[in-house]
Predict the structure.
Amino acid sequence: MSDYRIEVDRGRCTGIGICESMRDDRFEVDDDGTLVIHDDVVDEDERAEIESIVLSCPASALKLATVVG
Ligand code: SF4
């Protein structure tokens, strides 16, 4: 079974914080607008939820990458 990893394109992220509003245990926008991802590894159980957060990012800055191994 594969795991997935959350990746952020920092050139695209505008720090709006939609992702944080959906899962603030994983996503946090610092005071300076920098996104911090607290745990970037996603298992199959959470894949659908995190995928919907990825799709909700208005800047298309998030990606869920497959971790081979
Ligand atoms: S929703 Fe997208 S643009 Fe907004 S903080 Fe999260 S990754 Fe960045």
